Amino acid sequence: MDESTSQNRPSIDLSFLDGHVEDAARRLLGCELQFIKGDQTIRLKIVETEAYHQTDAASHSYKGQTPRTDVMFGPAGRLYVYFTYGMHYCMNVVTGPDGEGSAVLIRAAEPLSGWDALHKNRGEHIADKELTNGPAKLCKALGITKDYNGHDLRMPPLLLIPHEQDFAIVQTTRVGISQAKEIPWRFYIKDNQFVSKQ
DNA sequence: AGCGGGATTTTCT
DNA sequence: GAAAATCCCGCTT
Fold it and tell me: Which nucleotides along chain B are within 7 A of a protein C-beta?
């Protein structure tokens, strides 16, 4: 069977997510998120990530598998969406082998197309640089809610496209946590204007 | 530019 | 009952 005719199975290779979560967090930088919304496609470049693992006290998966963290323990390449602070959604890419509780929080992205839809979801008065420079801002801009928890990122309407990396990466500590503050599992593209906190 | 507080609900102790 | 992988507004330098 020729590869060009095998259209009934996913064509995106996300096997780079199968290894350690720290590695996956690095390699997700520069990758593209595509959200196909009707006639308009939102395209974003991932510029800031954070790794979370079941051996890490800051991770939702640290206390074991629960209804909330179920997706984190599943196969890599799915979306883990959680609700926090009574009003915000945040999105993660699940990593590692099936059975391991690990995921990468997408903290910020750079819009490439679909500015109209992003402004409509976030508010017309929001400056371009503020549209997607934070995990909850990003979800609101895309319209991601709990409904997308468990979504396979190789399938429409939300796709994760691997990409070459031609930039410098900064590694530092994570934002907004009270446990395991010293673990340097936050990564971002150096000098990128859409990173939430330099 | 930087700080402090409030919003608001899920999840676990 | 408290904390939470956050954001926004208003106030002070």
Answer: 7-13
Query: What is Dmax (Cα atoms) for chain A?
Result: 52
Top pLDDT among A117 and A5 is at A117
Query: What is the mean pLDDT of the segment spanning A77-100?
Result: 97
Distances (CA, A) of A129 to A46, A60, A87, A118: 14, 29, 22, 11
Q: Please state whether strand C lies within 7 Å of residue A177 at its CB atom.
A: yes
Give the C-alpha separation, A100 to A103, whole Å: 9
Nearest nucleotide relative to A83: CA against C1': B10
pLDDT at residue A6 greater than cutoff 70: no
Task: Compute, in degrees rounded to 10, the torsion defined by CA atoms A61, A66, A68, A70.
Answer: 80
Question: Does any strand C atom come closer than 7 Å to the Cβ of A84?
Answer: yes
* Amino acid in position A125: H
Q: Name the amino acid, one letter, at A75.
A: P
The span from the CA of A95 to the CA of A142, in Å, is 21
Which residue is associated with the tokens 């009707």? A38
Q: Which residue is nearest to nucleotide C3 (CA to C1')?
A: A85
Q: Is the C-beta of residue A96 closer than 7 Å to nucleic acid chain C?
A: no
pLDDT in tens, A40-83: 999 999 999 999 999 999 999 999 999 999 999 999 999 999 99
Token code pair at residue A78 = 């799915």
Q: With cut-offs at 50, 70 and 90, classify the pLDDT of residue A39.
A: confident
Whether the beta carbon of A142 falls within 7 A of nucleic chain C: the reply is: no
